[in-house]
Every structure is written in C-alpha cells, then in structure tokens.
Amino acid sequence: MLRAHSLLWYYLWVAPDLILLMLAVLIWRRRLYKRFPVFLVYAVVIAVEQLTLCIADVLPSVSPTTWWYMFWTGLLAEAVVKFALIGELFSAVFGFYPALAKLGKSLISGVGVVLVLLATLAAAYTPKDNIHWIVSGAHLLEQTIYLIECGLILFLFLFAAYFKLHWSRSSFGIAVGLGISACVHLATWALIANGNFSARYRVFLDFLNLSTYHVCVLIWFYYLLVPHKSAVTSVVPSPEHHLKVWNEELERLLHQ
Which residue from 130, 150, 185, 248 has the fewest beta carbons nearer than 10 Å? Predict the structure, then answer.
C-alpha cells in the first residue's frame, strides 16, 4: 500500500496544500492576516511550491534534473519565508516588550537567512558528480534548514516558558505546527542524507513526512479558524527576571 506514486502518495502530497490554500483564503476574507501577515505569505508560498512540484512530477516533459532544480528554488524561498514567520512569532510572544520583540524578530530573520545561505554554499560544493550532487545537496540543505528551524522554535518555547510569557491561541498553534513538522522532517532528512537505505525504507520516510505535513496543516486550520470556548488570561512575567528592565534599556539605546 505504501508505494511511491500511488493514490495515497498523491493524496498526501496534494490534499494538505489545497487545505492550506483554503486556509489562506479564509484568513484573507476574515482579515486575520493583520495579526500574522507573514503566515499568510508562508501558506501561499508553501502550497504553490508543493503543487508545482507535484505537477512537474507527473509531466513527462520535465526531466529529473529540472525537477530537482525546481526543488532547490522552492526550498530556498520556503526557508526565507519560514524564518520570517518565526521572527513574527517571536514578535507576537514578546508583544508586551516592543523593543525586545523588534530586536528578536530582526535577529531571527537575519541570522536564519544567513545560515541558510551558508548551508546552500556548503551543499553546492559537495564533491559529487552532477546528478547526485543535485539530490544529495538538496537533502543536505533540507536537513540544515530543519535543524536551524528546530533550534529557533525550541529557543522560543523555552524562553517564553522561562519568563512566563503569554501565547495567543493563533501564535501557539502556528508554533506547534512548525515545531512538529521541523522535528519529524529533521529526523527523516538526516536519515536520508546520511544513511544508505533501500528504496522501500525511503518511501516509508517520505510517507511519514507527507503525513506529518498533513497533520500540521490541520493544526493550523484548527487554531486559526476554530474559536476557543473561553478567553485566556494574560500572564505577566515575573519581575525578578528583569525582562522589563531589559526592554527599557534596549529602548533607551535605540533612541540615543
């Protein structure tokens, strides 16, 4: 049943992207994009990228080399938007401290993009023959992106928990979906990039990635569109952590 290019394979490839596009339309119609504009861009970019790759996969006129170049292009675009989204989440969680939120958003977005560019150069200079370079380099780049993403999301959760910062329902749902996707994809891409597995085993890992992505899209759909029953009371950070002092000092430095 778990075969590449089977009906289940294409369902798991196409259905989440169609749901994600539907989510983007509903976010736009309900004007929810005002709170998370980058997530709207992220949803559209990811859905269009994956649907384009799926269409190219079934077209006989698209060669395997061309498909992998398309994969590289989409992967880089996805990485840039993804790190911008993590920066937006950081800004949302640190809403009580605008100076820290602005600094954190800029650092996460900027450092993430720089690390991805360095990973791209490392993957590009992998000493292998042409067609294998395209495939192995893409796997290495994918693994690096998910490693950076996992680290940033883990830092965001730990930092928010330490300072007892309040998560909004939407920002929490987006972060949980990104975190689950990043962890599972990091594990599978690390195995693919560094292990010599049989085709059957690699297909199983592909199905795991596709299924995880489907679940994460449903998580975003639920947390962004389904209303919660009771309001959550904001939790003010403990004063002994001096987070307020840091924010005031940073604002003072920025206005000098």
Answer: 130
